[in-house]
From TrEMBL:
Residue ranges of the TM segments: none
EC code(s) of this entry: 2.7.1.49, 2.7.4.7
Encoding gene (name): thiD
CC annotations in GO: cytosol
Gene3D superfamilies named in the record: 3.40.1190.20
InterPro entries (alphabetical): HMP/HMP-P_kinase_dom, PM/HMP-P_kinase-1, Ribokinase-like
Domain named Pyridoxamine kinase/Phosphomethylpyrimidine kinase: residues: 14-259
CDD domains in UniProt: HMPP_kinase
Keywords on record: ATP-binding, Kinase, Nucleotide-binding, Thiamine biosynthesis, Transferase
NCBIfam families the UniProt entry points to: HMP-P_kinase
Protein name, as recorded: Hydroxymethylpyrimidine/phosphomethylpyrimidine kinase
Catalyzed reactions: 4-amino-2-methyl-5-(phosphooxymethyl)pyrimidine + ATP = 4-amino-2-methyl-5-(diphosphooxymethyl)pyrimidine + ADP; 4-amino-5-hydroxymethyl-2-methylpyrimidine + ATP = 4-amino-2-methyl-5-(phosphooxymethyl)pyrimidine + ADP + H(+)
Amino acid sequence: MNDTPQAMTIAGTDSSGGAGMTADLNTFSAQGVYGANIVVSVTAQNTCGVQKVQMITPDMIMAQLSAVADDLKIRAVKTGMLGDTATVETVAKAMTKFNFGPLILDPVMVAKGGAQLLTDEAVSAVKTLLMPLVTLVTPNLPEAEVLTHLSIKTTDDIMLAAQQLQTLGAKNVLLKGGHGDAPIVLDYILLADGRHFWLRTKRFNTARTHGTGDTISAAITAQLALGHDLETAIIAAKTYVDATIRDGILVGHRYGPLNHLAQSTIKNQPEVIYDI
Ligand SMILES: Nc1ncnc2c1ncn2[C@@H]1O[C@H](COP(=O)(O)OP(=O)(O)OP(=O)(O)O)[C@@H](O)[C@H]1O
Ligand SMILES: Cc1ncc(COP(=O)(O)O)c(N)n1
C-alpha cells in the first residue's frame, strides 16, 4: 500500500502556478515522487507580483498534517512560505509529533516581485523553533543575511554564514547563489560532518526564474524520498533546476515560471569545486 515514494510540501499556493506549492508538486512529479500538500496560505499572485494573501488557521493546518500522518508514509518533507509566527509554531509542533522523515527548510521571506512572505516576528520563530529540527536549510543570500545578521559579499562571508546557520541548529546548509548578476552562479554546501563544496554553473540571462528556490528544495526533498544521500540529492536537484531554466517556457509578463517538464538534452551537471 505505502510503497510508492511519498514526499510532502508545507507551503502557500500561487494562483499563477509558478511558485509555492504548485512548483513543489510539479517538481515531485517530475522526479517520480508522489506529493502530499499542506496549504498554509492562499496567495493571489501572478508573474508580476503578489496581490493578496490569506493565511489558513493553525487548527486547519494541524488537521491537514494529522490527516496525512494518519494514512500516508511520507519519507521527506519541505517547507516553503510559512507567513506568520502562528504557522511556524504549528509546523514545529507537528514536526516533533509526527515522523515525516528529513525536514528541508526553504526559509522563503520575500517573493521575486518584492512582497514580504514571512513577518519579521516569524523570523525569530523560524530560528528558535524550526532550525533545530532541520536536516537542510536552503536560504538565498538575502535570507541568509536576515537569519545570521551578517553582510554577505564575499565567498568567505558565505562560508561564515553557513557555519552560523549550523550553530542555529540546521545540520546541513545549502546557500543559494541565484541573486546578483555575475555570469557564474555559485551555490555553497556545508554538510553536517564539516565537508563543504561549491556548485558552479553558468547564469542564464533571463527573468523567467519564478520559483527557482521552491524547485531546488522540492527536488532535493524528492531525491531524499527516493532514498538518495543528501550530497547526491543536492547535485541531482541542481542539475534539474538548471534544466528547468534552460528549457524555458513563455508564460506571463515578468518573472515567468520554470519548465518543470524540462527534457533538456544537455543535462548540465554543475561543476563541483572544493577549494575556491
Ligand atoms: N539566472 C539563473 N541562472 C542559473 N541558475 C540560477 C539562476 N537563478 C537562480 N539559479 C539557481 O536556482 C537555484 C535557486 O536559487 P535562488 O538564489 O534564485 O533562490 P531563491 O531566491 O530562493 O528563489 P525563489 O525565491 O525564486 O524561489 C539555485 O541553485 C541558483 O543557483
Ligand atoms: C506561495 C509562494 N511561495 C513562494 C514564493 C517564492 O517564489 P519567488 O521568489 O520566485 O516569487 C512565492 N512567490 N509564492
